[in-house]
Specification:
The complex is a heterodimer. In chain A, 33% of the residues are buried. Chain A is globular and about 40 Å long. In chain A, a hairpin with a 5-residue loop joins strand 4 and strand 5. By secondary structure, chain A is mainly beta. Chain A has no helices and eleven strands. Chain A is 0% helix and 58% strand. By secondary structure, chain B is mainly beta. In chain B, strands 2, 4, 5, 6, 9, 10 and 11 form a seven-stranded mixed β-sheet that branches. In chain B, strand 9 and strand 10 form a beta hairpin. The radius of gyration of chain B is 13 Å and the shape is globular. The chains are: A mainly beta, B mainly beta. Chains A and B meet through strand 5 and strand 10 of A and strand 5, strand 9 and strand 10 of B.
Amino acid sequence: ELKVEQNPLFLSMQEGKNYTIYCNYSTTSDRLYWYRQDPGKSLESLFVLLSNGAVKQEGRLMASLDTKARLSTLHITAAVHDLSATYFCAVGTEYGNKLVFGAGTILRVKS
Amino acid sequence: GAVVSQHPSWVICKSGTSVKIECRSLDFQATTMFWYRQFPKQSLMLMATSNEGSKATYEQGVEKDKFLINHASLTLSTLTVTSAHPEDSSFYICSARTFRDLTEAFFGQGTRLTVV
């Protein structure tokens, strides 16, 4: 059974600082997703990572995937308040048909 | 990206009644739709997977008689919560996938269900 562990679960950071959210998963998968969720809202797709060594960047967020280590990271550079949200990683299973989500990381960026 | 519309956005119902939630793919044909439930401050848990024209596949622990899923067309799936109870209060989110691109799943806006 695929298990996805995300840490930290809560992250309070100062504006301008850098930090990384980690996502470990237990079995082989060919795809890894990162989503953002604002309070009371649905999911916003951030990144889809499909191969070992994949790195994608959008603004202050950068995601990477190491399929051998079964690890993905979401790196935040020079955080700003607007990045405050909950971030989920999700791993595709059964040929990517299902997604198993991590517990989520609540990010609070303080001014 | 593709658009998935979920309706209603929120609903309040009395205990014992049934509620239907619709999930529509607006600009693509969704061969597969997924229904998730999210309790406050928790992650998303997959409830069931539905393929157009066939019976839904439910995850372990999800009561198929309580959560009725119908995927009658390539653009519409419905989730009916039957005989709702307060413990069914949750945020329900659907997502859809097209046969053309299996790498991406598009999420609806979610439905906040409150059972009183």
